Amino acid sequence: MTEPQGEYEPSAWDWVSDQVATYERTDGAEGNTLQGTDYPIIVVTMKGARTGKVRKIGLMRVEHEGQYALVASKGGMPHNPGWYNNLTTHPDDVSIQDGAERFRVDVREVDGDERQTWWDRSVAAYPDYETYKNNTDRVIPVLVATRA
Q1: Which of 4, 13, 63, 148 could bond 104 through an S-S bridge, CB–CB 3.0 to 4.6 Å?
Q2: Which residues contact 112 (CB under 8 A, 6 or more apart)?
């Protein structure tokens, strides 16, 4: 079993749920970049922190030696994205789809030097993260997903 089980609740944002559906239906051949860019994404599937329902989002693809950074930037908004709570509540009930490959992961938040290393990798993959950092007073959480 590769994905969290339960009732799926698509994103309330149509563009997110449409992109996830396209990505999954085509094994990542379509819908595989951030809208309007060439930056690749992955699809992360998780359990909702409050509802327990299955949630799916596209996130920037920041991969290094089989691990993935999941950057809770929310575009530099003042609060963490809702999915951050999902992943910190259920860190061992998460899967990633990277292209056609789907696999379970364990997620942990990183800090200190390890966070900086993953932050630098993330900015290299998607330079706008640096702009987001400058637009907020919060420290943008960086989580690392490792194959289970």
Answers
A1: 148
A2: none
